[in-house]
Write a structure and sequence with these properties.
5 strands; Rossmann fold; 44% helix; single chain; 5-stranded parallel β-sheet
Amino acid sequence: MTKKILVVDDDEDIVKIMKIRLANQGYEVITAYDGQQAYDIIQKNTPDLIVADLVMPNLNGWILTQMIKNHDQYKTIPIILLSAIVAQDSTPKADDLGDYYMSKPFSIDKLIDKIHELLEFK
């Protein structure tokens, strides 16, 4: 069965690149451009894994992740958080909320490796 990944980022170029690369790995890719759109999608089409930016309009990645992790039906979905925020207090907070944190710019190959790893243990 094909694993479904939700990619959430307000940068259309990043979404496009991730969609192409993940589809080439055999994943079904769903996209959203803000946290609210992502949460609406999750309720209709629950993904196996989520890759989300932290800084987005409408509903940011922090709040989106909290909503997912506090919901019994969705709390086991692995979440990889991405951000260009380099503040020292961002990484611990991201690690507490999500399952993995990567700072932007990031290596798409390392991201794909982490996705494989998280989905293998799910």
